[in-house]
Amino acid sequence: MVAASSRELSLPGIPKDPETRAPSPSDAKIEASPARYVVIEGPIGVGKTTLTKAFAARLGAREVFEVFEENPFLASFYQDRRRWAFQTQSFFLLSRFRQQLELAQEELFRRKTVSDYLFAKDRIFAALTLDDAELSLYDKMFEALAPRLAKPDVVVYLRANIDVLLERIARRGREYEANFDRGYLTDLAAAYDHFFARYSDTALVVADTTELDLVSFPAEVDALLRAVHSHGAGTLHYAPRAR
């Protein structure tokens, strides 16, 4: 199987030389941003759902969550990734496409929306789990579906070290995630870093949440939201203030 990192280079929105941008002032007014569609992304356990709910509440926005628990292959995938990878990934691809298409048909830009996933990220998981023949078939499906969907105004990429991710996964207590594979999570986090290091489809804010407590400290959510909404084009590497 080809290494996931080498496959990621063909992902949409990845130039060879990513654009970078200096951070904007953290005290900028949230209301100044024209962004109406915000996406929160990151590896399993990083806190996407928590931040999506927090941002949506502050913005009076609609929440959109991926419906991973409806995937009938997911539990089997965690038991035997090689056997169930293609079924699991195909279900996710079509499920996410249907949900995103419904959003577009509901006139997405008439309402502020915060989503806990980016459609293009599906390809990260595919490159990590599928063999070459399966990935070739998957890519044909992905390339037929992706152009029909709306792009967000800004993506917030959350990252954290592996120990923190494993701790958060254990804390949420999902049965099928018990004894989560550290090696798989390490590869997944690396694939996410590779993808977003070269991402240029939209404005991007990268925030390391290893030391960022978005549950117990609402002020940290507020500060991150101000940074997101004051950010323009390119990539902002967000550094939280010390508590």
Fold blueprint:
Layout: H1 4-7, E1 37-41, H2 48-59, E2 62-64, H3 74-79, H4 81-105, E3 113-115, H5 122-129, H6 132-145, E4 154-159, H7 162-172, H8 182-197, E5 203-208, H9 218-230, E6 235-238
Parallel strand pairs: 1-3, 1-4, 2-3, 4-5, 5-6
Averaged pLDDT, please? 82
Order of helices and strands: HEHEHHEHHEHHEHE
- Spatial order of the strands forming the largest sheet: 2-3-1-4-5-6
What is the domain total for the residues?
Answer: 1
Task: Give the name of the CATH superfamily.
Answer: P-loop containing nucleotide triphosphate hydrolases
* CA gyration radius, whole angstroms: 17 Å
Total of helices: 9
Kindly name the structural category: alpha/beta
What is the beta-strand fraction? 5-15%
Give your account of this protein's structure.
The chain is of the alpha/beta class. The protein has one domain (4-9, 35-238): Rossmann fold, CATH 3.40.50.300. It contains nine helices and six strands. The chain has helices spanning 4-7, 48-59, 74-79, 81-105, 122-129, 132-145, 162-172, 182-197, 218-230; strands spanning 37-41, 62-64, 113-115, 154-159, 203-208, 235-238. A six-stranded parallel β-sheet has the order 2-3-1-4-5-6, with helices on both faces.
